Amino acid sequence: LRTWSPARPCRVSGSHRACLIARFNFIYAKERLEAETILRPFVCDMEVVQRIIYIAALESFCAAKMAFWKIKISVKDNLCLNHLGPKSLEVAVLDYIACHKDLYDVCCSVHEVICSMNLNPKLPCPADVDFIVISTLIRELCSLAFAMQTLSPPLDVAFGVDGELFNSTMYYRSFDSDFTAPFVAYHVWPALMENDAVIVKGEAVTKT
Question: Residue 95 and residue 105: Cα distance in Å, rounded?
Fold first, then answer.
């Protein structure tokens, strides 16, 4: 670990948090659709394409959070030797990680996500499709998810379950939904959460 020096307070900045939320929205509006376009030549069923991307988003957040946890332990072990304040050690660790983004090997997380998806027997996808084709989307999601862990409190995505009761405070209905159906058929995009509060709604499809 490099020599410790005071970090800029970017982690606690409201504008930094706002930028991360805006980036989440941008990925949903642009990179998600680009990934759909990339997958369509391999998968003709649009529902399957959307399920793949949703799982990619969840897996990316899981991989990034695990990587963050490991880095946080390492940084904390090093900083505690010389930490004198004025911030708490916990805040100092988060600030340090936020300002030294190269601590995170995002390529490793991308590889983990792709391997997990390729080996997932429940993933409804032809066996000859390698999910490396959407590695750009996965990389963006991993980088964003990692950065969101440096916030206090951190931001995370909600894990939806097929068949759950549709929650209008957490999800928008997709345009092709049955708007009278009370249950979620499948999820298109996860909701962004801060503790138990919905920061950005996700998207889900409801069908009878």
Answer: 18
Q: Is residue 5 part of a domain?
A: no
Q: Any idea which residue has 């982690």 for tokens?
A: 11
pLDDT in tens, 118-170: 888 777 666 678 899 999 999 999 999 999 999 989 999 999 999 999 999 99
Residue 156, beta-bridge partner list: 193
Q: pLDDT of 3-16, one tens digit each?
A: 444 444 444 467 89
The total number of structural domains that make up the chain: 2
Nearest to 179 by CA among 138, 207, 137: 207
**Amino acid at site 201:** K
106 located within any domain = yes
Distance of CA 12 to the CA centre of its chain: 20
Cα 49 to the chain's mean position, in Å?
18
Which tokens in the block code for residue 31? 């990179």
Supply the range of the domain harboring residue 177: 158-207
Q: Work out the widest C-alpha separation in the chain, in whole angstroms.
A: 60
Q: Looking at the structure, do residues 55 and 134 belong to the same domain, yes or no?
A: yes
- Measure the CA–CA gap between 31 and 33, rounded to whole angstroms: 5
Structural tokens at position 51: 């399920």
